[in-house]
Amino acid sequence: MDAEIKAKAEAAVPKFKLLKVLNQDQAGRRVALHGTIDDQPAVMVVERATFPSSEVYLAGLPSSLSRLRNLGANDIYAWSMARTGPVENEVKPDDDNGHENGVDFFADLKINLIYPCTEAHVKKYSKQGVRFVTETPEIYKNHIRPFMQQKREQGRLNWVFNIIEGRTEVEDVIYRTKLGEAGDEGFLLLPDLNWDRKTLEGLHLLALVERRDIWSLRDLKKKHIPWLEHIKAKVTSATTQTYPSIEENQLKLYVHYQPTYYHFHIHIVHVA
Question: Pfam families of this UniProt entry (predicted)?
Answer without folding.
Answer: DcpS, DcpS_C
